[in-house]
Design goal:
The chain is an alpha/beta fold and 297 residues long. 49% of the residues lie in helices and 14% in strands. β6, α8 and β7 form a beta-alpha-beta unit. The model is unreliable at 1-10 (pLDDT under 50). It binds flavin-adenine dinucleotide (FAD). The site of flavin-adenine dinucleotide has 23 residues, from β4 and β7.
Length: 297
Amino acid sequence: MLAKPSATPYSHNYDSRLMERLLFRVAKRWVAGYNAEGAIEAALDTNSHGMSAILNFLGEDITDAKLVDRTVNEYLLLMDLIGARNVHGCVSVKPTQVGLAIDYDTCLQNFSRLAAKARELGQFMWLDMESFKSTEDTIALYLDLCKQYDMIGVAIQSYLRRSASDLLHIIECGGKVRLVKGAYHESKEYVFVTDEEVNANFSKLMKMLFESNNYFAIATHNSDLIEQSIRMGKQHPKFEFQMLKGIRDELKLELVTKGFAVSEYIPYGSQWLPYSVRRIMERKRNLLLLARSLIQQ
Ligand SMILES: Cc1cc2nc3c(=O)[nH]c(=O)nc-3n(C[C@H](O)[C@H](O)[C@H](O)COP(=O)(O)OP(=O)(O)OC[C@H]3O[C@@H](n4cnc5c(N)ncnc54)[C@H](O)[C@@H]3O)c2cc1C
């Protein structure tokens, strides 16, 4: 397990640690703390509100083989804890935290271990989708794993031009998809640029999912897209909504009250910075929140 950074005024890193602590003050609305125990507590709280929990141990682009092993072990421990503490939930894993930043085969081996453990415990497992440089390999990993394991799903990003063809392929293979807009800064060559285009593609991909027979998740906080999916989903019981911890909490509970399945994605761990920066950049108001927190220190 990675340690919580400690700040001492006498350290030569004092300024950066102080900045990190101030940033964490804002980030902690989106992350569940530094360790698995904190994540399990947050998951049980999510369950008590009628939602399922999706736990992610933060980390990405890991090239150190020992650190990759530690990350895999963390997920194995987390799955045991989910079972032992009767959490209604599962894990979601980034390929580049379990070996894809080293090579494809290492990652496939690690995912196979995790998928086997998930199956043994009767749990689901999601593969997060990362930046465009990992897209091709992540789809290939998912399709490889699908040959042996059926309780797994993968995120597909509506901002990518290639996603309609990836989705078609996954649907044909009976795969399970979490539809998201996409959270990385990508070259214009590969993505739809305007909000209108990204939303229009989200609607198109959502329609493909509703017309399929496969289980899927609509992972957005966007009210228009959620309303569209409610309209499209009248005849389709096999889907759930997914939202991130700390975002649109009232809407989550409204959907639960209306009888929809809702999962909350809960990240934790000391590598919270890149994740939090993505959340901050998604919304101008979060930049103001950050600025206010820095001024009030
Ligand atoms: C469960 C889940 C899993 C995800 N997994 C992945 C993944 O594997 N790969 C990937 O690239 N992306 C993933 N994402 C992130 C996703 O791609 C988007 O970046 C993110 O969801 C914001 O887009 P949106 O669809 O919610 O809509 P937006 O139109 O951006 O937001 C709609 C509304 O939601 C609220 N909102 C949105 N973001 C924030 C925020 N940061 N802070 C406060 N309020 C906010 C605001 O009220 C906003 O008006 C995931 C998202 C979810 C919900």
